[in-house]
Design brief:
single chain, lipopolysaccharide transport protein A fold, 5 domains, 8 helices, 60 strands
């Protein structure tokens, strides 16, 4: 019995102890503390004698600055994730109908702070997370709970709906604030909204709307709990309706944004949207505001750590427990009707805690619509598109024209248009991207798709540069210089109308000076001087070089240019087709005299060597053999090559120039490589100047036109005004009218007369001259060295050195008159001269000549021919008759045909050791010193006769001098030859042999005449008959006709033998 009683008491004591421990520890955590006095007041308006915890006051002062009464409110109801502040409350309907709202209570005034889900590790029931809370404050509030609000039993449900009446302020993290009237809340739809005008603020950004707002709320992440005050984690999206005006902080230049439909802000993504006739203005000190217009405007914000308020004087403690209080004085900012919002602190002066919170700045802005217009007076920039994206951090603006099937008006805008006033630049392209610097000036621009760019002279409508492209373009600054680089891709076209130049290629890169009015930096100036001192560089060297400007630039200044693939160049100085084209631009600083003289008209500066301005002022005197230049203007040079590199000198920077030609540039140097073809045409001429080769170097060093062309090739070729010149290296000095070739080459020159015999040709015929060492030609005199060979139709001349002088000068200059057809005036040949000629009559060969000389000079004007021996002349002509008597040996050959009967050609050969002097007009030739002539019939052309074995009707003659006269036909007289031999003359044939001081021969009569001088006599030995013995005849003179076997004498002194 005692054991059972003892056991019962022990169990009872243990259970009582456990209940006491439960009541002490667990119950305070679960039971809501409503009016936590020891005894409930008899009326809700009755004051208690207890004060709220300090944490409630701190939270109210920190998070409810617009409700100054909340810190001393009579009732402060705290649950797990929030606190409600009020001075009075009552149920709206003690017995609600089944259809009406249940658990609805009215609070006056009303303020509330709530946090997201509490941290589970907290021990106190009133503890909350450190996240910034959401707040609500109004003049009164109708609040619906999920269960009855029982202050006696200390129970309250979760807030599931309500209406905040009168003036309302809603706040959230990161300085979010919405001000207005009559806000509604529904837990089921997760919305907080109002149809009254509202004011909105988020951190340093604020605005207002005239048609209300709506807030999409975030539900709590955890399931609903009995002690949960609100199942809301925070604000997700804020929407302002109607006409919205918003001011956005922007690094000292706030943005003023207005729209006509709505504003929406997503607090999770930090993105804002404006819709309906959006207008954005950026206020700029001492200038008109920048303006952006469109239909839709989006803003993306990012964490701006630089603006965080790390030194905030306020800190947030844990959320206070629910404590009802009765203050000793009236709450601040409260009137009979509720809170007096006019007396509350401005939200702009509110300071937020920085514990885990950051301020946000605009990261990106997007404007879209049928017409997006940008006007920036401070930067001198305007733009038109239907899509604009601005990256604030990257300082980049992306503009585009996007196709829109829904809006037909968008189809009217086909390309983006951007104008930059300070630089006079206009850009258009379907897609553009612009980047600016700290000062707001454009630092780079690029675009996609077909587009164009124009650049005008600031303050005028003169187009300095225009460009077009089909794929993309890029414009950016060159680092550490005052130079910009423009890159065009896809059928690119670049033009300078002021300089009358144009360029086309698949890709173009163009370096030019950035507009400025000040002096360039010293480093840039030093770099420019270095560039000018080394203007000539390799063809493939495209390193950009910045050139310093004068103290005040006179406008657009190009510096370098590179074009690639299918390049076409058009300019007053040169046109070109190439795969790679590179240009270095130079400029000559203007002097005071330039400025003075710039007001006077002056002749156009030519790129080709056409004349010297100083020489042009002097009286011109006409010289023999030279043509006076005519004032025909030059055509531009036409280039074709795989690669072209040029240096261009710009006109001086002179103001108020009356002559527009002064703006034209001057080509000073050109390098070309690969399949070079250079041409220059002239008015009135069918054949242009043409240079062909594998490489070309053109120098045009001064305004006086000192132009030199150097052509390389295997072979290189120059074709100028009817003549062709070929060689591995050809030089052409157009100003001095000289061309020369180092090494082997060939010249083809049209002539009107045969340079070897002076005969006038039926039509101009090419004279071809070849050599192996060197050639010099000044347009009138050509000199050829080493293994020279000259060919004209059927004539050929070879020697080691030749000089050809023309009657008229060929001009390589661009101001020369019509090209003359050359006549050879003089030919001088030296060392191993050989000449071969063939003549034809009606297609039949009439004569063949071969000559050999040590030197030979032919003067076509006077007809004089002079050769220096030892020399030789061979002549072949069709047979014309017998020239020698029969010889005894003919008897032995009686049974065979005579050689003369089968011979069809006559051969004459003359050798000499001294000089030969003749005249091509009179066809007379004289040979001196040991002259030897052999003649007779031959069977074929080019057959020769051995003097020791003369043929039938052949002969041989020796003398000290010989003169030959070729008689031209007259009337019935046929052409024939007359010979005169003097000094120790000897004559020999197969049937005769004679000696005399002088022997003459007349081919027309077949008559030999022999004479003696002084007391000497003529002697002849001949065989009169076939079987007879030779006889001898001595006389003072005699005549002899071999074909007739006839002989006569004068002053015969002796005869031996029989007739």
């Amino acid at each position: 019995m005692l054991k059972r009683l003892s056991f019962t008491l022990t169990v009872t004591t243990s259970l009582f102890g456990l209940y006491w421990l439960y009541a002490l520890v667990v119950t305070p955590r679960l039971a809501p503390k409503i009016l936590t006095a020891h005894q409930r007041p008899k009326d809700e308006r009755e004051e208690t004698k207890f004060k709220p915890p300090p944490s409630n006051m701190q939270n109210a002062e920190q998070f409810l600055p617009d409700a100054s009464w909340a810190a001393t409110a009579k009732f402060q109801i705290a649950l797990a994730n929030g606190t409600l502040f009020t001075n009075s409350w009552r149920p709206v309907d003690e017995k609600p109908s089944s259809d009406g709202p249940k658990n609805l209570y009215e609070f006056r005034p009303f303020a509330m702070i709530w946090f997201d889900t509490p941290d589970h590790g907290e021990e106190e029931p009133g503890s909350i997370t450190k996240k910034q809370p959401m707040t609500l404050m109004s003049e009164s509030g109708l609040v619906q709970f999920s269960s009855s609000f029982d202050s006696v039993q200390q129970r309250t449900g979760r807030v599931i709906g309500g209406k905040l009446q009168g003036r309302v302020v809603a706040g959230g993290p990161d300085g979010l604030m919405v001000r207005g009237r009559d806000f509604f809340f529904h837990e089921k739809s997760l919305e907080l909204y109002s149809d009254s005008p509202v004011e909105f603020q988020y951190q340093q950004h604020h605005g207002k709307a005239d048609a209300g707002f709506k807030v999409d709320l975030l539900p709590s992440a955890d399931p609903h709990r009995p002690d949960q005050f609100l199942a809301i984690a925070g604000f997700r999206i804020v929407v302002l309706r109607g006409h919205v005006e918003m001011e956005l902080a922007n690094q000292g230049n706030p943005l003023q944004v207005t729209c006509d439909e709505l504003f929406q802000f997503n607090l999770e993504q930090h993105v804002a949207w404006f819709q309906g006739n959006v207008n954005v203005e950026r206020f700029v000190p001492n200038n008109k505001p920048d303006q952006l217009k469109g239909e839709n405007f989006d803003l993306v914000f990012e964490n701006d750590l630089a603006k965080d308020s790390a030194d905030s004087s306020r800190t947030r403690d844990d959320a206070p427990p629910i404590v009802p209080i009765l203050p000793n004085q009236e709450p601040r900012g409260l009137s009979v009707a509720g809170p007096n919002l006019g007396e509350l602190e401005s939200q702009k002066e509110r300071r937020l805690s920085s514990n885990g919170q950051s301020q946000f700045a605009v990261k990106e802005a997007r404007m879209t619509g049928p017409w997006v217009e940008l006007h920036s007076p401070s930067n001198g920039l305007t733009a038109l598109a239907n899509s604009l994206v601005y990256d604030v951090v990257g300082r980049t603006v992306k503009l585009a024209v996007l196709a829109s099937a829904e809006n037909s008006k968008a189809q009217e805008l086909t390309t983006v248009v951007v104008r930059h006033k300070s630089s006079g630049t206009e850009l258009s392209s379907p897609r553009l991207r612009l980047t600016h610097d700290d000062a707001g000036q454009i630092a780079s621009a690029d675009g996609e798709g077909p587009g164009r760019m124009r650049r005008r002279t600031p303050g005028s409508n003169v187009i300095e540069m225009s460009a077009k492209w089909q794929q993309e373009f890029d414009l950016r600054r060159v680092p550490d210089s005052d130079t910009d680089l423009l890159t065009l891709v896809g059928e690119a076209v670049l033009q300078q109308p002021s300089r009358k130049t144009g360029l086309q290629g698949e890709q173009i890169q163009f370096w030019f000076d950035r507009p400025t009015t000040g002096m360039a930096a010293g480093s840039v100036r030093a770099a420019s001087q270095s560039t000018r001192n080394s203007a000539t560089v390799a063809v493939n060297d495209t390193t950009p070089r910045s050139v310093a400007d004068p103290q005040e630039r006179g406008g657009f200044r190009p510096r370098q240019l590179l074009a690639q693939d299918n390049v076409i160049v058009v300019s007053p100085q040169m046109n070109a087709e190439t795969n790679r084209f590179f240009v270095n631009f130079e400029e000559t600083p203007a002097t005071s005299s330039d400025v003075t003289n710039s007001k006077k008209p002056r002749p156009r500066v030519r790129q080709a060597a056409g004349g010297n301005d100083d020489l042009a002022a002097k009286p011109k005197t006409k010289t023999s053999g030279k043509r006076e230049p005519s004032p025909v203007p030059a055509e531009p040079l036409q280039f074709r090559a795989d690669q072209i590199r040029a240096t261009v000198r710009l006109a001086e920077d002179v103001r108020n120039v009356s002559n527009s030609d002064d703006r034209q540039a001057e080509v000073t140097e050109v390098w070309t490589e690969g399949n070079v073809d250079l041409q220059q045409s002239r008015d009135g001429e069918t054949e242009p100047l043409r240079l062909l080769g594998t490489r070309l170097h053109l120098q045009n060093a001064s305004r006086d036109g000192e132009q030199i062309l150097h052509v390389f090739g295997r072979p290189a070729m120059i074709r100028a005004r009817g003549f062709d010149l070929e060689g591995d290296e050809i030089f052409l000095d157009r100003f001095n009218n000289r061309t020369w070739i180092d090494g082997a080459g060939e010249l083809n020159l049209p002539v009107k007369n045969d340079p070897f015999d002076g005969r006038e040709l039926d039509s101009p015929t090419l004279l071809t001259v070849k050599w192996t060492e060197k050639m010099l030609f000044d347009g009138q005199t050509a000199t050829f060295l080493d293994n020279v060979e000259a060919v004209l139709k059927n004539s050929r001349l070879t020697c080691q050195e030749m000089e050809v002088v023309l009657t008229e000068r060929f001009s390589f200059r661009d101001d020369a008159g019509p090209a003359p057809t050359a006549e050879v005036q003089r030919v001088i040949c030296k060392d191993g001269v050989q000449i071969d000629q063939k003549q034809y009559i009606n297609g039949d060969q009439s004569e063949i000549r071969h000559g050999e000389f040590a030197t030979l000079t032919l003067d076509q004007i006077s007809g004089r021919m002079e050769g220096v021996g030892p020399g030789k002349i061979d002549l072949w002509r069709p047979g014309r008759g017998k020239r020698a008597a029969l010889a005894p040996r003919a008897v032995a050959q009686a049974n065979r045909p005579l050689e003369s009967e089968v011979a069809t050609w006559e051969f004459t050969s003359v050798t000499f050791q001294g000089k030969t002097i003749g005249n091509l007009h009179s066809r007379q030739t004289k040979f001196q010193d040991r002259v030897h002539i052999t003649y007779g019939p031959v069977a074929h052309p080019l057959d020769t006769i051995d003097p020791d074995h003369l043929p039938k009707d052949g002969g041989d003659m020796e003398c000290d001098s010989l003169q030959i006269l070729q008689v031209t036909p007259t009337g019935t007289q046929k052409p024939h030859v007359e010979l005169e031999a003097k000094g120790n003359a000897k004559l020999e044939g197969r049937a005769f042999n004679a000696r005399a001081d002088q022997i003459t021969f007349d081919e027309s009569k077949e008559l030999y005449t022999l004479r003696a001088i002084g007391n000497r006599q003529v002697t002849i030995w001949r065989q009169a008959t076939r079987d007879g013995e030779p006889n001898e005849l001595n006389a003072k003179s005699l005549w002899f006709i071999p074909s007739q076997n006839s002989i006569g004498s004068y002053q015969t002194t002796g005869i031996r033998g029989t007739e």
